[in-house]
């Protein structure tokens, strides 16, 4: 019997992006992935803390860096496949007009269904307005976007406020276009900023943005600090912190962290994900 496809493999439309790159006949309805796909960048083994694993199922991680971290924690079944965002960018055929990039897109640290973030958005807004130039976009995670008071703070400060969509949960309401929208937004902005080092910073750097991490990192309710938390982020990746980090250095690190230099061929990807016998497009 095949192991069940973990619902997190669908988050952000990841399975759909990989199915498209792999050339499946029906990429809008991807088959189960035989393993656990990393669904966000983190400083551990790529998986969310506390996820129960079926013995023998591979961890499908984004990069060699993540594989090594998983190995150091005793997880011997980690396989590097590359991040879905890197595959999406590899398939993107619309060139960016660098002269039309403008302003900053800001991703505040966010919570999720099980944990809320505690912090002062007003302080972040003041710091952003003091250091950023041009039009500003605040991209709120759905969890914060639905809270009208938070949206209004940014709107009243003159920000354009958007949300890329809902990542999905328990196989429901997955927004297949989440990363597609995110890439489109990153391509129109000159800078990407967050108050914590996160996936969006690496995505922005890979997509050609300048990136910066600064401001109050806020606190996640009942945060799991097993891997070191915010202090470790700042300590291990100082190159992306501050108001004006070197984008060349940042891009090089993003390529490594997102596995953009280690992408599989469509045939290899189908093998990694357990799709070797799935029909492919003619």
TrEMBL record:
It comes from the Bacteria. This is Uncharacterized protein. The lineage of its organism: Bacteria, Bacillati, Actinomycetota, Actinomycetes, Micromonosporales.
């Amino acid at each position: 019997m095949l192991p069940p496809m973990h619902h997190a493999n669908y988050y952000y439309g990841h399975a759909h992006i990989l199915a498209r790159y792999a050339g499946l006949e029906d990429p809008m309805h991807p088959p189960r992935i035989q393993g656990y796909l990393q669904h966000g960048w983190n400083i551990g083994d790529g998986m969310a803390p506390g996820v129960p694993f079926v013995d023998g199922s591979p961890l499908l991680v984004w990069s060699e860096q993540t594989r090594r971290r998983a190995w150091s924690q005793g997880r011997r079944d980690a396989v590097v496949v590359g991040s879905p965002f890197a595959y999406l960018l590899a398939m993107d055929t619309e060139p960016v007009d660098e002269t039309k990039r403008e302003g900053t897109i800001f991703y505040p640290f966010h919570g999720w269904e099980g944990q809320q973030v505690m912090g002062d958005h007003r302080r972040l807004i003041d710091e952003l307005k003091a250091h950023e130039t041009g039009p500003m976009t605040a991209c709120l995670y759905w969890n914060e976007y639905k809270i009208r008071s938070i949206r209004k703070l940014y709107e009243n400060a003159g920000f354009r406020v958007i949300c890329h969509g809902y990542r999905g949960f328990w196989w429901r309401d997955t927004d297949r276009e989440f990363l597609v929208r995110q890439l489109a937004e990153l391509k129109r902005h000159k800078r990407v900023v967050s108050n914590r080092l996160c996936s969006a910073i690496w995505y922005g750097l890979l997509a050609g943005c300048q990136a910066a991490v600064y401001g109050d990192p806020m606190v996640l309710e009942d945060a799991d600090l097993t891997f070191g938390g915010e202090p470790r982020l700042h300590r291990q990746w100082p190159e992306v912190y501050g108001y004006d980090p070197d984008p060349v250095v940042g891009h090089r690190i993003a390529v490594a962290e997102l596995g953009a230099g280690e992408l599989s061929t469509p045939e290899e990807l189908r093998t990694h994900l357990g799709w070797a016998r799935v029909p492919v497009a003619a």
